[in-house]
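Hi team,

Filling in the usual template for the complex we talked about on Friday. All components are listed, including any nucleic acid strands or ligand strings, so the model treats them as one assembly.

SUBMITTER: L.P.
PURPOSE: interface mapping
COMPONENTS: two
RESIDUES: 891
SEQUENCES:
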Amino acid sequence: MEEMLKVAIDKSDKAELYYLEEKTDSITFENSRLKDIDSKIQSGISCRIQKDGQMGFAYTKNLYDGAELMKNALDSLSGGVQASFDFPFTRKLTELKSYDSSIEDISTDDIVEEGTRIRDIFSHQTKGQINLYAGINKSGLRIVNSYGTDLKAKFSTYSVNLEILYPASHSFIERTLTSKEFKEADDAYLNYILDMYNQSLKEVKVKKGRMKVLFLPEVMYVLMWRLLRAANSKSIYNKESPISEKIGEKIFDSKLTIYDDPLNDKMPLARSFDDEGIPCQYLSMIEDGVLKNFYYDLYYAEKMGARSTGHGFKKISVWGGGETVSMRPVPALEHLYVKTGDKSFNEILSLMDRGVIIAGALGAHSGNIPNGDFSIGVAPGIYVENGDIVGHIKDAMISGNIYDTMKNVIAIEDTYYPAFMGSFPAILFDDVSVTI
Amino acid sequence: MFDDLKTIMSKIDADYADIRYEIKKEIRIVFNGKELTAVTSNSTDGYVLRVLKNGGLSSVAFTKKKDADNAVQSAIRNALLISKNIKEPVRFAEAEVVKDTFKPELNEDPRDISIEEKIDLTRKYNDIPLKHEKIVTTNLAYSELVRERYFFNTEGTEIREDLVTNGIRGSISSSDGNIFQSVGIGFGGSNGFYTVRNQEEKLERETSIVLDLLNAKPVEGGIYNVILNSELAGVFTHEAFGHFSEADLIEDNPTMRDKMKIGAKLGSDILNIIDDATMPDQLGFYKYDDEGVRVRPTQLMKNGVLVGRLHSRRTAEAFDESVSGHCIAEDYRYAPIIRMGNIFIEPGKKTFDQLISELGEGLYLLGLNGGETSGQSFTFGAKYGYLIKNRKLGAMIRDINISGDLYRTLENISAVGNDLELFKFGGACGKGQANIRSCHGAPHILIKNVVVGGK
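RESULT (copied from the run log):
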């Protein structure tokens, strides 16, 4: 990389190289049967250069040597993309424990054995179809730039996702476990999925109306997606955010505190620097319902006369596709949390005289996301009456706007769980429209 | 290149193995509002190896040739691990041994067009919405993706095929200071650069839609009879029905598999659905899939009866049905999975005016705004729509998401128009991997009793 950086500096004013290598082993059980074991051994390098106020970008996996990568970057430079921000000189960083070397001793045999153990426990206690995904990822990252920055980090992740499907459908109850080291799934995790499924097994019909709706951690992304879009410096810059003038204003219920914490190394993939080499930091986005901050990468920080908040990440698209190394950094919150509340899950249930638990969402990407609107199919919704789970419902939709819905928080669960887009507790909202 | 692949394969002792090497060339040009924010041109490559041994099938994707030995050992070890843990061994249906090189005929090869011309064309389109005061921003991207594929298997199949896709996609956003509206836009194809030329009218049309949406009324939630335009009906066909024609999605789901039996009457008598990736000049065109099987037109539904489905070699054997050539990977990082090529509802006899008369009262919904399915439940968004009263188009409506049960909806399709249109470019079907060439279509269709989510 040093050689390549020299070539880049030679041909440009400022240069940055990003190198990522990773190994992934994953297993899949479908309908209780071991179906697939797949491995990936991948590496790649990307390069950003600036010359005369213009920016170039290129990446490769291994086809070409450094000179070819540089040729693509120089070609890209001539496209005329304007940027003149400086890459950072970053040295002292918070030390994070993002890699647990015990993961090196874990083989696909161990993961299959754990999957089989979980499958066997479940098949004795439920008739529902069991699907399980488990995998190990080990990765190494290095960023160097022409300002003397040379940062390295290693990461280990083990994760399990378990689903039980309702009869005649693909709707399921699911939950994910994730850690830096290999860990057996504990009883609390297994019992949550089993109980939720077994209690809601009966299909029920209910009347439409406005009611209490409990978003499980697994579907909080529906709401967070809209907030992340609105608080993104790119949206602010493009004048398509409804909250661009609302820093310091109370936009949500005062029970809600939402933040990004890349430094929390109890969770896997903690980061002390972002994909541009800027030190990562805790960022308060919503504090007691008040909008506190937007988040920036170097590009949009420069456009808006702000400082990067350390949130420039090479983010792949929401539904998969693309590849980290091939992406340019964009403003992204990759370590999002909703602060936990003071109620256990059962205490929250007892607050529901009549309502629906959203355990899966369909069509989260539909509708007017900039406006904060959502309108999702529930897959499934679980109907609750007088604090008891009665059964699951199909063919229902819930809809609203986050700037209304998130003003009406009744209670927040006291534990957060890793889920899509962040770590979230379940949140009970009042007065949400349910169409059936 | 084939010599390299054969060397790697010579080290494998297995019942079957295949290897795919791909060079991927990508160009992207992105405008955000008035600004050009990215111009990139990249080449990259990689390998995917699959091994079938003692009834266990495993895959390894790797980047560097020096990792080949490691990859071979991992694949064999994992195939044996699967084999030890399953009762029914994986077998592959027979497929013809093929030696072929196929490069598609293109109407203007995008690789021959300069990057400057591509930037100028995208800028010209991007400027169309931006001349309006209430258009706050645009996001318009030209993308070009070339997959140069080399496929070799231990049966002797040796295929070299190129897939060339180009298009422009993005969104246009409007605001009147209070609310924001946005519409997605996409055009392009897999048969040449001409597919992105002369699209000014489309930009003008979408711009006026996103401006009109500022004054449209949010739809009232409820149950409606609806007419879907070809884009929405095509998405319904793809999302709600098509995915269950993919054998891998139902193989291990006994209840769905039971419902999707060949011969089952699932739809109304007027419903005919086919997947035909061999049709020329459409986005989903290809000759061989990523298992080296030649794709064939596959009738899925005839007069409402399920008559076929989409297969890999593995599922064709497991279902005891014919291979169809639908096992496709996103690129050199993935083992292939079953994918639709070009699925559509075949045209019926009714004109659009006849459909409106038949509907009487209800909604006319147009354009896609995201779709997703889970089992027999589906949800998708419409870009916009119109109220229909007394057989006449009325006011424009917005914020429309529809949701339903696949089987009930198939039964409730009460009329099919005569105006088939196929999707051009812009969405990507996600199924763990992205498929930007997923093509679908339909004529206008009339569906009774659809759940529409409102505010």
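MY TAKE: The radius of gyration of chain B is 23 Å. Chain B touches chain A through 92 residues (CB under 8 Å).

Thanks, L.
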